[in-house]
Amino acid sequence: MIKTSILDAGKLQEFTKERKLQPFRVKQIYQEIFKNQNINFAEMTTLSKDLREDLDKEFSVVTLKVDKVLEDESTTKI
Amino acid sequence: MIEAVIIYHRQDEKYNKNDQKKLNRITLCISSQVGCPMGCLFCVTGKLGFKRNLTRDEMISQIFYANNYIKNKFGKQEDGTLFGVRNVVFMGMGEPLLNYENIKKAIEIMLRQEVGFSLSKRHITISTAGIIP
Lengths: 78, 133
Hints:
The complex is a heterodimer of chains A (78) and B (133).
Chain A: E1 4-5, H1 9-19, H2 23-35, H3 49-58, E2 59-60, E3 70-71, E4 75-77
Parallel strand pairs in A: 1-2
Antiparallel strand pairs in A: 3-4
Chain B: E1 5-14, E2 21-29, E3 33-35, H1 45-48, E4 50-53, H2 56-74, E5 87-90, H3 100-111, E6 124-126
Parallel strand pairs in B: 2-5, 5-6
Antiparallel strand pairs in B: 1-2, 3-4
Helix pairs in contact in B: 2-3
């Protein structure tokens, strides 16, 4: 099953409503993604472990599958 | 299958550590479609044929992945902030202006400061074969 993108504001709102999360939690999630450049919820250490696990069940940050990564001195091809 | 390419621009002087040139800025080349219907003679993507348009989130995913990759590869800059993509060019697979609505939404996120990458307008480039949306 393909998980929902974390950028889907509607789905994320549903998610926060269900769990009665405070609005600053959403800010923290986006902070982790945009500022701390994390793509795995498990590495988002400003969030509680339970929240990380729940997020991981429903959402993903990168919605594409990475097939292979090629690299030379001045470029990386994904 | 699509592709994205991270391009590292380095300064001319050699960096003391392990003789590597100092990293200056990073550009990411991203795709806007899977395959391409244009068939330009100079481009191999046209030979694949057109599969589908990428969504906004799929285009942004390319930046998320690249930023994470760069973080793991280079870590922090001298001022303590992380290295990351500073320029985005739509020069991967696909004709961006045939997917106008979605690239518009993707660029909004690139420019936005809240829930966005706060890139500069001048650092985003669209390469086109001349489609008028």
